[in-house]
């Protein structure tokens, strides 16, 4: 989607930025991992194919992607943005007949960053963005049965099991956002700051110290 091509979302521990061409080489290295291929149900691609995919995701009207950055590292202007990457998060509009339904997908690719609560913060940030910018009212997450950490995280966020597919070895969890959930989530995540990505990139340290 182009809606977020100049959007930066700043949380407590992470910064979400648009998926740009300069992020592709690092992303490509991540996706060589058999573990991540299995967790994301992805096939390995060549570097050229990854660049094509990045361009496709930017233009597609049914996909919204952010790259997850380590906020502390990103605050240091001496550190290149690609070196701050820890994963990505996506919203997919999977049903053309229901524009209010979206599938959430999150990947913490760097092992050292797992188990530290980043996934929860990023998921909540993306849900807030989906609700306020895309009008999403229902969220789903399809997770491999062997990914118990992600299943537990979404259930803690009050997602409920919708279906279980033994053939594909995955569970679908979902949440319908009523007014009470929307109010609670937006209140809990009120600290999120939305900024212009291109303007912020050249002024990282000052921005994160505000």
How would you characterize the overall build of this protein?
The protein is an alpha+beta fold and 210 residues long. Helix content is 37%, strand content 27%. The protein has nine helices and nine strands. The chain has helices at 24-30, 34-40, 47-59, 71-74, 118-134, 148-156, 179-188, 197-201, 204-208; strands at residues 7-10, 14-18, 63-70, 85-92, 101-108, 138-144, 160-165, 170-176, 193-196. It has a nine-stranded mixed beta sheet with strand order 7-8-6-5-4-3-2-1-9. Helix 5 (118-134) links the parallel strand 5 and strand 6. Helix 1 crosses helix 3 (47-59). The longest helix has 17 residues, at 118-134. The protein is globular, with a radius of gyration of 17 Å. The model has no long low-confidence stretch (mean pLDDT 93).
Could you list some keywords that capture this structure?
210 residues, alpha+beta, 9-stranded mixed beta sheet, 9 helices, 9 strands
């Amino acid at each position: 989607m182009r809606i977020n091509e100049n959007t930066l979302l700043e949380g407590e521990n992470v910064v979400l930025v648009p998926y740009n061409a300069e992020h592709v080489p690092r992303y490509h290295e991540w996706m060589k991992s058999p573990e991540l291929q299995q967790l994301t149900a992805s096939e390995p691609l060549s570097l050229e194919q990854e660049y094509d995919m990045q361009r496709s995701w930017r233009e597609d009207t049914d996909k919204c992607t952010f790259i997850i950055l380590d906020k502390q590292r990103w605050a240091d202007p001496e550190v290149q943005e690609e070196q701050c990457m820890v994963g990505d998060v996506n919203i997919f509009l999977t049903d053309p007949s229901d524009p209010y339904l979206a599938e959430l997908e999150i990947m913490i690719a760097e092992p050292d960053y797992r188990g530290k609560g980043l996934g929860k913060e990023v998921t909540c940030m993306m849900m807030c963005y989906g609700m306020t910018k895309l009008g999403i009212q229902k969220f789903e997450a399809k997770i491999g049965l062997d990914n118990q950490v992600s299943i537990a995280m979404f259930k803690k966020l009050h997602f409920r099991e919708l279906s279980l597919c033994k053939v594909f070895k995955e569970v679908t969890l979902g949440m319908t956002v009523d007014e009470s959930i929307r109010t609670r989530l937006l209140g809990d995540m009120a600290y999120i700051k939305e900024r212009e990505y291109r303007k912020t990139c050249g002024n990282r340290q000052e921005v994160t110290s505000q």
